[in-house]
Amino acid sequence: MYPSKPKGQLHRARLVVSWVLLAFMFLAPFIKVGGQPLLLFNLFERKFVIFGLAFWPQDFHLFVLATITFVVFIVLFTVVFGRLWCGWACPQTIFMEMVFRKIEYWIEGNSGKQRALDRGPWNGKKTFKKLSKHAIFLAISFAVGNIVVAYLVGVDKLYQLIADGPGPHLASFIAVVAFSLVTYGVFARFREQVCLIVCPYGRLQSVLLDARSIAVAYDFKRGEPRAPMALKGKEREGGDCIMCNQCVEVCPTGIDIRNGTQLECVNCTACIDACNGVMEKVGFPKGLIRYASHKGISDGSKLTITPRIIGYSTVLVVLLVALVTLMAGRADIETSILRTPGVMYQEIEGDQIRNLYSLKIINKTFAPMPISLVLKEHPGTIAMVGGDIQLPEQGLAEQAFFVDIPRSALKSAHEELTIQVFTGTTLMEEVETKFLGPRIESHESDHDQKKEDDHD
After folding, report:
1. C-alpha angle 393/397/399, rounded to 5°?
2. Which residues, including other chains, have CB under 8 Å from residue 120's CB and lie 6 or more apart?
3. pTM of this prediction?
4. What contacts 17, CB < 8 A, 6 or more positions away?
5. What is the per-residue pLDDT across 129-160, written as a single tens digit (0 to 9) for each?
6. Do 288 and 279 meet the contact criterion of CB atoms below 8 Å apart?
7. Which strand ranges, in their side-by-side order, compose the sheet holding 47-50?
8. Residue 433 above 60 pLDDT?
């Protein structure tokens, strides 16, 4: 594809948005909040940090819910505003049109010069331009590969990998090279085929879009029938489309937007800018190609709230409320207490009944915590095996402990037990478990008798 170099008001606005998003992408791994990275997706150690908050595999339900919410948001947004995401925020479009294509224009010139260069014989000038372009492409791809690794392992680890060289960290070095080569292959060779063939989002457009969806559209009522500009002294007949073909020349996927909304259209707005430029030159009103719905063009109606929009909006609100509620109620630690399987209760001195438990605590914060356990309702004691619990930052602790309760305090052989988890004087969590003891004859008999009475 040799699309012409786009220019115009919308292109300038997209350029600003692109640089903001690119700056965020390249800087985010280096930004720290409270000493922690702003974003970290360490799949290898199953550690995730989002805006300074640590998430663990135990928070997977939040990740699933957030993903579903994001998908519904994209669906709702697409139903109303079409593929705005593709044109303005998709990384593929931003890198292709605002980075790699810009470099191509800079080195090889506009579309006509690129065609001539490719068709011409290999000589010193062509070799120099091609080598320069691909060297810069590889350098940018290598930078992207390093940034991807920084998101996966953190910048501190990346610095260490760079300082140590590839020898001690061969797997990481291979990962950087692999990400770099994939990036280079996509933007140097595969290009718009990612949008046309690979991206599943584009394939969903026929399901998501309808006649009321706003997209980059050609005003066929105003533009048809197409006719070239009239010769001097002759009256022109036809619509506003003067068949200049500029909208096709600038399209990065090579489609003709005048044929209607198509799967290949990524809503990059290059055709809008090109058409507006031509309309301005020939003295016609701008907006022959613009953001509009098919229904809006055909009968002049404005955007209306359809039952489908109401349905998607309702689902989105419910998901957002659930996500915010779960996030607000998310504890800093996650405790699991289980009676040790296969071990019965013990009767010890002082008419005490003893149960053995296993404890597992995960610390989701970046600070170590001393942990203590307290029985909430029952009298008795808790004795840790191996001493007090010191919960490391972003780590877990596993330990066994005994719970001793006086026999007189037990009401049944299977007692419901609540154990409170403290750090210092702060109650972090309450955990329900079972406590086994000997059969309490009088109480059990009374209980059985009561059940019989109730049954009668």
Report:
1. 155
2. 126
3. 0.75
4. 88, 89
5. 999 999 999 999 999 999 988 998 888 888 88
6. yes
7. 39-42, 47-50, 53-55
8. yes
